[in-house]
Hints:
Residues 172-270 form the HTH araC/xylS-type domain. With 276 residues, the protein is α+β, with helices and mostly antiparallel strands. The protein has helices at residues 12-19, 90-100, 112-128, 135-154, 162-181, 188-194, 199-210, 214-232, 237-243, 249-260, 264-275, and strands at 5-10, 31-38, 40-45, 48-53, 56-60, 66-71, 78-84, 105-107.
Amino acid sequence: MNEIFKMFKLDAVESDRINSTDNEPHHHDYEELLIGKYGQLEHFIDFKSQLIDAPFVSFIAQGKVHRVKPLIKDGKCDIWAIRFKREFIAETVFQLYSSYHDKANICLKADTCFERLDSICQIIYDEYLQPNPDLSIIRQLLSSLFTIIESDRKKLNLNDDESKKIQSLTFKNFLRLLEEHYKEAKDVNFYAEKLFMSTRNLNIICQEILHQSVSEIIEVRKLTEAKNLLITTDKTIAEIGYELGFNEKTYFTHAFKKKTGITPSEYRKEMIKIIS
């Protein structure tokens, strides 16, 4: 996906189209949020398949292997599909990983709380369809959308497996520490010691949940923030690199290009073209 944000609807016609084509498990280079108002979703993720009835929320993290089949129920299918790059809401997206890593699909009640979600989606969609949509408005509304979803999610008892609870808590605590220290030059040992565990066990948990090592997650968090700052600020490349713990501009540029294939300056120019 070239766009930093994209939104569309899955209706009965789109459901028929998707289910008449080859639809193999795959992964994305973006985050995806599905909010179902009517219909069903057959979702293969985390190596298991689940059939859920609307209303529902489903969050698919970047890189997760999955397959979705929107289905018609009672003659209806109405699902919001929102796709966005990590850096679009850099301050929020890693928190989403801690919330949804083991429960991608959440069934909700058809009440006023869900109606709020649908209303916010409509407002976002209306702005998105403008000739020159204001991405700052969309960014704020998307963050609010996740805040409401998180509030509803906490009211549900989603995990009754004690070992998974412990693993999930450790992962959440790691991401919380990462948010506090990712701009500093902290290595895997620092986070393991803070969590009173070995680097090996912390790596095992991160690999099982996010399919990345601790060092990879740290690097991705820095890169995500770098992209965010390149898009949303006028800071120089050197200033951004220094803010993220890179003492040399050349080292930051090298690390950025190694992961993205382009330099920070080239990335900024590309994003300006897309956003403007």
